[in-house]
Amino acid sequence: MNRTMEGSPQMPAPVQAAYSYCEAVTGQQARNFAYGIRLLPTDKRQAMSALYAFSRRVDDIGDGALRPEAKRARLEDTRSLLDRVRNGTVDHNDTDPVVVALADAARRFPLPLGGLDELIDGVLMDVRGEEYETWDELKVYCRCVAGAIGRLSLGVFGTQPGARGAERAAEYADTLGLALQLTNILRDLREDAANGRSYLPADDLAKFGCSEGFHSTTPPAGADFAGLVHFEVRRARALFAEGYRLLPMLDRRSGACVAAMAGIYRRLLDRIERDPDGVLRGRVSLPGREKAYVAVRGLSGLDARTIGRRTLGGRA
């Protein structure tokens, strides 16, 4: 691995400009992830910003107003750009800053770029309007759009030499991605319904009398909506507990980044659990000061040490 050291003059100006663009995108649009990414040293922060900017481009195609066939074409064009990164045919003077930054990050870090193919596959599932009968089916989608990002991020973070259980690090990163995505699904329940999308497993919806969907600010008549939300919250908490086993394997600042990002989503989950109907009234979010507090705890090591003791002790 040939990393450019922080502050090194070796990085060409076009590459530095490309990273600056990606960091600006991350700062403006990564409402939760940016708090963790800021805690990383320069080289890792740049690489994570490049990953985020590329992922955001894919997500924006899926969420945009184009017709399905146009979205599919745009996604396959984006996959072709990824092929150029993978094949090493992107040079510093390419006019696409996201591709330039991603290509440089892939040269400096062992990124499993197939994870971005999985992301594109997941967004194509959205374009097709796929719905999910069971949790096992939904997990396939979540692994594409979030678990893969966890594994890509691990390529940036790396694991500490001699870390116990490091052979399972990618599995834990994937599981943490699932936890974040399930939290997103709960948070965005009403917004997704308004856009004609349903993600929660049909089996779960039927179990709690919620098969009608979520098209108003009140639960469906006769439904145990709170029961459904609490059921999914418990599932997400179990995924977080398993995914947090990754933290003791990371260096301090990488662990702080993960602890901050995951901690923000854990607090979102707490809010959703306290007020299940709130997700039908609008998007649940945390104020910036609370996100900053979680990031400071992550950097201080408070969350990582606490979680590390629990996971290594088998109590998570």
Give a structural overview.
This protein has 316 residues and is mainly alpha-helical. The chain folds into two domains: 12-114, Farnesyl Diphosphate Synthase, CATH 1.10.600.10; 131-316, Orthogonal Bundle (Farnesyl Diphosphate Synthase). 68% of the residues lie in helices and 0% in strands. The protein has helices at 13-29, 33-37, 42-63, 68-87, 97-108, 114-127, 135-157, 169-187, 189-194, 202-207, 225-243, 252-274, 278-281, 288-300, 302-312. The chain is globular, with a radius of gyration of 20 Å. The model is unreliable at 1-8 and 307-316 (pLDDT under 50).
H/E element sequence: HHHHHHHHHHHHHHH
Tell me what portion of residues adopts beta-strand conformation: under 5%
Distance between the termini: 34 Å
Anisotropy-based shape? globular
> Number of domains in the coordinates?
2
* Backbone CA Rg: 20 Å
Give the second-level CATH assignment, the architecture of the largest domain: Orthogonal Bundle
CATH fold assignment of the largest domain:
Farnesyl Diphosphate Synthase
Mean model confidence by pLDDT: 91
The helix-and-strand class reads mainly alpha
Q: Count the beta strands.
A: 0
Quaternary structure: single chain
Under the CATH scheme, which class of the largest domain? Answer: Mainly Alpha
Main β-sheet, in a few words?
none
